[in-house]
Amino acid sequence: GAGVSQSPRYKVTKRGQDVALRCDPISGHVSLYWYRQALGQGPEFLTYFNYEAQQDKSGLPNDRFSAERPEGSISTLTIQRTEQRDSAMYRCASSSFGRNSQFFGPGTRLTVL
Amino acid sequence: GESVGLHLPTLSVQEGDNSIINCAYSNSASDYFIWYKQESGKGPQFIIDIRSNMDKRQGQRVTVLLNKTVKHLSLQIAATQPGDSAVYFCAENTATRSGNRDDKIIFGKGTRLHILP
Questions:
Q1: Does the pLDDT of residue B87 top 60, yes or no?
Q2: Which residues make Cβ contacts (< 8 Å) with residue B17, sequence separation at least 6?
Q3: Residue of B nearest to A57 (CA)
């Protein structure tokens, strides 16, 4: 596609449920990043991939969060046993390689009730 | 801890004037800096970047200045327009960690730019 896409755009779930957030990067982009952004704050780094390899997951808050990119294209961020504090905008970005200019997707607004 | 941040949360500028948005960083190992613009309801949009071997870089109506001595970064927007209203974030990257490449980008808190008519 022309840009980074994310789905769903909005997700409302009950506490304790698992959620899977999807990111479809720009075609050909090697690097894919996941961020979490609270209202009025800058994006908070979660993890990133080069191709299918997860390079850095130091930003994942705890072991309920995981991400994968099995074929080096689409990525899924999974949150298990969601908690209210997980409510946020989750953003995905891709770049041609590494820290070059990143292109952000529209985000998934997650609300945990 | 080490972080990237901005001096002012809000900046109001008269339309047509130049805007200067400042950023201080504390990680002396950072060697790549980026400015992003985020309009309401949208994701951050890349504006301009600069590497630590430069002290100035110009784009279309924007200039980024880097002062490594005092760890200060600024974004200058010439002839500010209503469409420049947004939150601006600086971000940093440290090229190496324990000898290995790390492309993690760390964002600052953001400055909201208001354009006065």
A1: yes
A2: B79, B80
A3: B104
